[in-house]
Specification:
Blueprint: H1 2-16, H2 21-26, H3 34-37, H4 41-52, E1 74-76, H5 83-87, H6 98-119, H7 127-152, H8 164-167, H9 174-191, H10 203-216, H11 220-233, E2 257-261, H12 274-280, E3 284-286, H13 288-293, H14 319-324, E4 325-327, E5 332-333, E6 339-340, E7 351-353, E8 374-378, H15 379-394, H16 398-410, H17 422-436, H18 443-449, H19 453-456, H20 482-487
Antiparallel strand pairs: 1-3, 2-8, 4-7, 5-6
Helix pairs in contact: 1-4, 1-6, 4-6, 4-7, 6-7, 7-9, 7-10, 9-10, 10-11, 10-15, 11-15, 15-16, 15-17
Protein name: RagB/SusD family nutrient uptake outer membrane protein
InterPro entries: SusD-like_N, SusD_RagB_dom, TPR-like_helical_dom_sf
Keywords: Cell outer membrane, Membrane, Signal
């Protein structure tokens, strides 16, 4: 299985060569080896930076926003990552794009984690710091494997560096992989500090991911319990300013951000910044369906509210509509007076993305260096995980209302009406996830785990006139990339492909 061996070597090299000139000065590139590396605390610092660098990829940074263009929320202009074909139901082992990158980038992350965990005990360093690093890497491995299960179901499970002979194994059942994910997270939770997130994963990061994994696997009460531990810890809270949370100036020491893919100028920056991709190029455009989902300020849908004005669609609407979507006619202006209005050819709709588009980075170009972090977990999601899981486990109670209403109150939306049935409250929670987390890449996995993808996707027609398709017989999972099937004869292709 040569490709996995190559991935292992590349990942190991990235750990050893991560942006540290001092190390390069004393260890020439052609002399780097396991024997010279895993010795000092500085080696450990570089190694864990190499593991975290695996997040700076198409699968774990702002490119996740494109996943929403596989749903009823957004359209993607162009052929980027073959989102266009996948949205049309053209998904095959040789499709490439997301079908391949999610798999390969996640396994690069797994390999980096396994190399770190296999070698860290060779390093002479402070034991408390070493244990914290172990916890962080266990958390990251759980994240990589969880992502793999969301797209492919059961996958090959490796928990140590692999040899060529060991690599060609059949996939483990999804339940087995999830069991390992939860074990890694429990071990991480025991090792990580109960502090705010600043750059390294903390206990709350791992608890939040555990709650999410359990919820996505319909373990409702366990998910609610894990989310409630985050809530009761009172370490994290909702940010007062929703909009700036997605911009550089609002991310430092933000009490809502629980984990992110972090960029830092001048050394670590996004080569295709969200400013350029979603600001200038307008790569994804909101659908009318998505825009209509936002309630009026009286808490009623636009079909029922007397406040709705179709001639001024943002007037009297949930503020998150404006925080998420900007009109194509809107001019962006930086604090220094630089102005920009979209004129990109091929824009599908007039609903462009505002999240992660920072006017302070104007003028936008492909040379723009952006160090906005891409948020992978935030406290509002934990509240909504708790609400959904608790409602599914035991039905409505005050704690469910409190969690949802806290998210709504932050943007001055009225509280939910009381006395809702479990089914009605389920719909309201799903609505809240859609508008609170809009344009953040959640919707695709949500509609699949709710088993409603075949209801909400078919019938949608792209502005270009192309009908979207979703076949429930096979599209709930991606196929394994054909290149992996060719190399690993023990890997069984997913059904329908």
């Amino acid at each position: 299985m040569k490709k996995f061996l190559i991935i292992s070597l590349v990942s190991t090299a990235s750990l050893l060569l991560t942006a540290c000139q001092d190390f390069l000065d004393k260890n020439p590139l052609d002399q780097l080896s396991n024997q010279t590396f895993w010795t000092t605390e500085k080696d450990a610092d570089m190694a864990i930076a190499g593991v975290y660098s695996q997040l700076l990829s198409l699968t774990y940074d702002h490119h996740r926003m494109d996943w929403d263009a596989l749903t009823d929320d957004f359209f993607l202009f162009g052929t980027y990552q073959r989102v266009d074909n996948i949205a049309k139901g053209i998904i095959e082992p040789a499709t490439g794009g997301l079908v391949s990158t999610v798999y390969l980038e996640s396994y690069k992350g797994v390999t980096a984690c396994n190399v770190f965990l296999a070698n860290i005990d060779r390093v002479t360093m402070d034991e408390a710091k070493k244990n914290r690093y172990k916890g962080e890497v266990l958390f990251l491995r759980a994240l990589f494997y969880f992502t793999l299960t969301e797209f492919y179901g059961g996958v090959p499970l490796y928990t140590k560096p692999i040899t060529l002979a060991e690599a060609a194994v059949k996939q483990s059942p999804k339940a087995t992989v999830i069991e390992q994910v939860i074990k890694d997270l429990d071990d991480a939770i025991a090792l990580l500090p109960a502090t705010l997130y600043t750059s390294h994963a903390v206990k709350g990061s791992a608890l939040a991911l555990k709650a999410k994994v359990l919820m996505h696997n319909n373990k409702w009460q366990e998910a609610a319990d894990a989310a409630n531990l985050v809530i009761q810890s009172k370490v994290f809270k909702l940010a007062t300013d929703y909009q700036t949370m997605f911009l550089t100036k609002g991310q430092t020491n933000n009490p809502e951000i629980m984990f992110s893919a972090r960029y830092l100028n001048p050394d670590r920056f996004s080569s295709e910044s969200p400013d350029m991709k979603y600001g200038n190029a307008a790569a994804i455009n909101g659908s009318q369906n998505f825009v209509d989902e936002f309630e009026c300020t009286d808490g009623l849908p636009i079909s029922q509210s007397p406040l709705y004005d179709k001639t001024a669609y943002k007037k009297n609407r949930d503020p998150r509509l404006d925080y998420t979507i900007r009109d194509i006619k809107e001019q962006l202006v930086s604090s220094t007076g630089v102005k920009f209005t979209n004129t990109a050819a091929g824009i599908y709709t007039s609903y462009l993305v505002r999240k992660y588009v920072d006017p302070e980075n104007l003028p936008f170009s492909y040379s723009t260096r952006s160090d906005q972090d891409y948020i992978l977990t935030r406290y509002a999601e934990v509240l909504l995980i708790y609400a959904e899981a608790k409602n599914e486990a035991s039905g409505p109670d005050q704690s469910v209302y409190d969690a949802v209403n806290a998210v709504r109150a932050r943007v001055k939306m009225p509280a939910l009406p009381t006395g809702l049935t479990q089914a009605t409250l389920r719909d309201r929670i799903r609505h809240e996830r859609r508008v609170e987390l809009g344009a953040e890449g959640y919707r695709y996995l949500d509609i699949k785990r709710w088993k409603i993808a075949e209801k909400v996707i078919p019938g949608i027609v792209d502005p270009g006139g192309v009908l979207r398709k979703f076949d429930p017989a096979k599209h709930y999972l991606f196929p394994f990339p054909q290149s992996e099937i060719d190399i690993n004869k023990n890997l069984t292709q997913n059904p329908g492909y």
